[in-house]
Amino acid sequence: MEWDWAFVIEILPTLIEGVKITILATLLGSALAAILGLGLAILRRSKNPLMAKPVGFLADFIRGTPLLVQLYFIFYVLPDAGITLSPLVAGVIGLGLHYATYTAEVYRGGIDNVARGQWEAARACNLSAFQTWTRIILPQALPPMIPALANYFIAMFKETPLLSAITVLELMNQARSIANFNYRYIEPITLVGAFFLVISLVSVIALRWLERRYGRIEER
Amino acid sequence: MGQWAGYLQLILEGALVTIKLTLMGSVLALIMAFIAGLGRISRLRLVRALATAYIEFFRGTSIFVQLFWAYFVLPLLGFSLTPLQAGVLALGLNVGAYGAEVVRGAIKSIGKEQYEACIALNFNRWQSLRHIILPQAFVLMLPTFGNNAIELLKASAVVSLISLSDMTFQAQVVRAQTGSTLMPFLTILVLYFLMSSVISFSIRNLERYLTRGLDGVRS
């Protein structure tokens, strides 16, 4: 079978529709993972073992099981409990929740890297727990984490094709429906691969820049 | 209850396929990781370029796309693969690319004095790698290899989409036959978690076994 440029041009608009959804899902999923991850990290540090232990187990469980199965779970099981989600919302929640368990570890590392004296100084200044977190700890802990967080968001981007399994019309799903309809697999699947490769190579350059700007987390 | 036993057996058959896929994929990934990782530090520029291209390609494109490419596009180019072969190939090559960076990082992290000692003992490059560098570097690679193996196990769920009857595929079959969703999906989530726990447990033990008697020697 030969590579057909006319066919490529014909299918390109449909693929670009898919690209939009892929990018939207990545952005929303990243935002959710960034917020949920911070919550998980803080809860896991809780002094109350009844809080820290179950949260820790839940995070380990989510990290130890496949994203695809979690997506199925959210998409097929929750409606039985009366919660019906649109495919995209279910996909974003799945991505966000799965990667939150990874970003939580990044947050944990960053928070542990803040010197003990900072905590003691905050206590000496009579700051409340909330003030300590928002004014003292997080502003110091966050910048060095940025490259590591970005790394996981790129990883998440590469997992968005899984959303096609729960009928989200993102890039991979568009490519598959084109392939099944025309019975030509070479162009659509290769184009999807090329698209991911290009974005990944660009994001590697962006990541290098972030690392120079904010420093690697392990070097501090 | 007897009905569930039948469905559970179906899922356990899928679990066997998942385990087989994970083991075979891990072996391929380990081989590729060492070939590409050592290729990255080769003295020949061509070998370095080839290894870099392999690593960047497989880390840059999604595992999902690679699997579909192996299953749907390779046959058109004349290589027909069964779903299992396509799955092992895609998983092994993908995770191998991640492992290659681990191999390279671990070898680079061995102190300079070790290399100097090798020169002092008149070892050639292969001898110093085989007898001095790799035994020390391998222990450093183990924890990350364990994480990679868990990633491979999790990625193996994707093969259900190319109609390979692994655990996820069987859960979908059970869902289609019974209409029940909670039972099949919760069962396989627990099974996947058990499998990943076994991997991290055995890697930790292997690491302890390999570093026995080295307390205080290793930095």
Distance between the termini of chain B: 56 Å
Low-confidence regions of chain B: none
**Percent of residues in β-strands of chain A:** under 5%
CATH T-level topology of chain A? MetI-like fold
Based on secondary structure, the structural category of chain B is mainly alpha
Global shape of chain B: flat
Q: Average pLDDT across residues of chain B? A: 91
Q: What's the β-strand tally of chain B?
A: 0
- Please, how many domains of chain B? 1
What percentage of residues of chain B falls in helices of 4 or more residues? over 70%
Number of helices of chain B: 8
Describe it.
- Chain A has a single domain, classed as Orthogonal Bundle (MetI-like fold), CATH 1.10.3720.10.
- The mean pLDDT of chain A is 89.
- Chain A is mainly alpha-helical and 220 residues long.
- Chain A has helices spanning 5-44, 49-64, 67-77, 87-112, 116-124, 129-159, 171-182, 186-214.
- In chain A, helix 7 (171-182) packs antiparallel against helix 8.
- Chain B is mostly helical.
- Chain B has a single domain (2-210), classed as MetI-like (MetI-like fold).
- Chain B has helices at residues 2-40, 45-60, 63-73, 83-108, 112-120, 125-155, 167-178, 182-210.
- In chain B, helix 2 packs across helix 4 (83-108) and helix 3 packs across helix 4 (83-108).
- Chain B is flat.
- The N and C termini of chain B lie far apart (56 Å).
- The A-B interface holds A 1, 61, 64-70, 72-73, 76-77, 80, 158-162, 165, 172, 176, 179, 185-186, 189-190, 192-193, 196-197, 200-201, 204 and B 56-57, 59-66, 68-69, 72-73, 76-77, 150, 153-158, 160-161, 168, 171-172, 175, 181-182, 185-186, 188-189, 192-193, 196-197.
SSE inventory with pairings:
The complex is a heterodimer of chains A (220) and B (219).
Chain A: H1 5-44, H2 49-64, H3 67-77, H4 87-112, H5 116-124, H6 129-159, H7 171-182, H8 186-214
Chain B: H1 2-40, H2 45-60, H3 63-73, H4 83-108, H5 112-120, H6 125-155, H7 167-178, H8 182-210
